[in-house]
Design brief:
Radius of gyration: 36 Å
Number of strands: 12
Distance between the termini: 51 Å
Helix content: 55-70%
Number of helices: 20
Shape: elongated
Largest sheet: 6 strands, mixed
Length: 573
């Protein structure tokens, strides 16, 4: 399509000679011969050619708009998927702007900026015609084109750094403002508004400073470009008038050369005016190249048989993304289909990090996670998602209805499947109490719902269509007694159905539901085995007979209080 646009640009630039040639005929033939028939004939021909010029311009604009749309359609989905994979590999990293970068490139391709680049190769043709009229006219036109082109390069050199710094400051300000919106309740409650506004204002002022400097310098270059073009226009008319007085050219050639020179300088001047958009498109292209280099294409995967739920981790090692700081060290365990595993441990021991690796959301630095013997990296994401349910520690719901969130936005989901998931999770009655029931609209992140309601809807989404493996990270952290009873009943139903269940918990009532327990400490497995064995009291050892004075531990005293299991709170790791 772009090659077709180049062909149209060639024809359009040829038709730009209509105006100069028409003026040449008027001044050199019509005015001297005073032939009205010739005037009418060449006027009709000129109007017909200009109509063709207008149609070609219209078609070229439509072709460029369509090329931009095709570009967006071909790239946006791939970019979207790569961004999701990049964010999954680096949770908590700053959000990229690559989705909007596709729009910037699309707009540039469909706008006036790229037209200037399509017209620029024909500038030598116009300059050559000026030389054919007279070498002096060609020299004046070429000098003007060189000066304006030099101004374009100067514009690039003196604004590039400021535009890049301004773009980075703008992204930082946008991220700060987005973070503020996500925590507006905390900010208002604790009077942090002015302090955070100061931090945002600092980044915003930095962005304005850089963009102001770039705009000021670019404006000066653009003003100089317009001055040079007007000066060159006057110069070519002055030189042309002198050559007419010297009888070296005709008045028609003087006028035609002035028009052709204007057409020769137009693409260069237009490039100077569109330079900011060109720089923005170039930066967007650079960021997209970085994204595609950092996140390679996903390999084609063979569709595996539906998993039964056997899960195993082999010498699993996890690090903080972008660093060598180890979060998990050589984690080994295996559970059979239908078993329930409780994962416990102190705060910061790596429980949530382990869970993210077990569901395939993060990739291990080394080692493997296998579902039914197949490495998680070898499963097709769409197929794995159909057989896996996941309730994260921070439940995130999406804009849409309650039913759409439970159904994972699958348009093929039936009402019966949605209601069955809600009933299994114990959320059916809670949903019926909402203003529109299952059709109730949920705002971004579940706005308008309490933490317990979001958690119960997240559980319904996790058990939708009875997956083979269900992973629940602190599923009762926001539940009341009614919600916790519903959760316990849901887990028991899943166990009876043969579903493999993983629980990150610190509450004893959920531990009683587990068949096995994995205890983590400092990112390593401290204990793993049947739950009763993990929490069985250690056998008392018989103290050795030591002659001499009794040791402090052997002296009689008050009985030591019995030790009870106390499981600490969880953390993001």
């Amino acid at each position: 399509m772009l090659l077709t646009t180049v062909a149209f640009s060639f024809c359009i630039n040829l038709l730009l000679f209509v105006g100069p040639l028409y003026m040449l005929q008027i001044y050199d033939r019509i005015l001297s011969s005073r032939n009205e028939n010739t005037l009418v004939a060449i006027s009709v021909i000129a109007v017909g050619l200009l109509v063709s010029y207008g149609l070609l311009e219209f078609v070229r604009a439509r072709l460029l708009a369509r090329a931009g749309m095709h570009f967006d359609e071909a790239l946006s989905e791939d970019v979207y998927r790569r961004i999701l994979r990049q964010q999954a590999a680096n949770p908590g990293s700053p959000l990229p702007v690559s989705v909007s970068d596709v729009g910037k490139l699309r707009d540039f391709m469909a706008g006036q900026g790229i037209i200037a680049f399509f017209d620029a190769p024909w500038v030598p043709l116009f300059l050559a015609l000026c030389f054919l009229f007279h070498p002096a006219l060609g020299a004046v036109a070429t000098a003007g084109a060189v000066i304006i082109f030099g101004l374009a390069l100067t514009n690039e050199l003196i604004t590039r750094k400021h535009l890049q710094n301004g773009a980075q400051a703008s992204q930082g300000a946008s991220r700060a403002f987005h973070s503020t919106l996500q925590n507006v309740e905390v900010i208002r409650a604790m009077g942090m508004e002015r302090n955070l506004h100061g931090r945002w204002q600092q980044r915003h002022d930095e962005m304005l400073e850089h963009q102001g400097r770039a705009s000021g310098r670019s404006g000066a270059i653009l003003s100089a470009s317009k001055f040079i073009r007007s000066t060159v226009q006057i110069s070519i008319l002055g030189v042309g008038a002198y050559l007419v007085l010297q009888r070296q050219i005709s008045p028609g050639i003087m006028i035609a050369a002035s028009i052709i020179m204007g057409r020769a300088l137009a693409p260069v001047e237009q490039a100077v005016g569109q330079w900011k958009h060109f720089v923005a498109a170039r930066q967007a292209h650079h960021r997209l190249k970085q994204l595609f280099a950092a996140v390679p294409d996903e390999a084609e995967r063979v569709e595996m048989p539906a998993p039964r739920g056997a899960l195993a981790a082999g010498r699993l090692v996890a690090t903080i993304p972008g660093t060598r700081d180890v979060l998990l060290r050589n984690v080994d365990f295996a559970i059979e289909p239908g078993e329930t595993l409780a994962i416990i441990g102190p705060s910061g021991c790596g429980k949530s990090t382990l869970v993210r690796h077990l569901v395939g959301a993060s990739q291990p630095a080394s080692g493997t996670v296998r579902l039914d013997g197949t490495d998680m990296r070898h499963w097709r994401p769409e197929q794995l998602g159909r057989h896996l349910g996941y309730l994260s520690q921070d439940v995130n719901l999406f804009r849409g209805t309650v039913a759409e969130n439970i159904a994972r936005f699958d348009a093929r989901a039936t009402d019966a499947e949605i209601v069955a998931a809600a009933q299994l999770s114990g959320a059916h009655e809670m949903i019926q109490a909402l203003p529109q029931g299952y059709a109730t609209e949920i705002g971004e992140g579940g706005a308008g719902l309490s933490g317990g309601q979001r958690q119960r809807l997240g559980l319904a989404r996790a058990v939708f269509r009875m997956p083979s493996l269900v992973v629940l990270d602190e599923p009762n952290s926001n539940l009341d007694s009614v919600g916790e009873q519903a959760l316990v009943a849901c887990i028991r139903t899943l166990k009876e159905a043969g579903t493999t269940v993983l629980l990150v918990t610190h509450r004893a009532n959920l531990l009683t539901l587990s068949d096995r327990t994995l205890m983590l400490r400092d990112g390593m497995v401290e204990k793993f085995g049947p739950t009763r064995e993990v929490f069985a009291p250690a056998p008392k050892s018989v103290p050795e007979s030591v002659p001499g004075p009794a040791r402090a531990a052997d002296r009689p005293g008050p009985a030591a209080p019995s030790r009870r299991l106390s499981l600490p709170q969880t953390s993001a790791y």
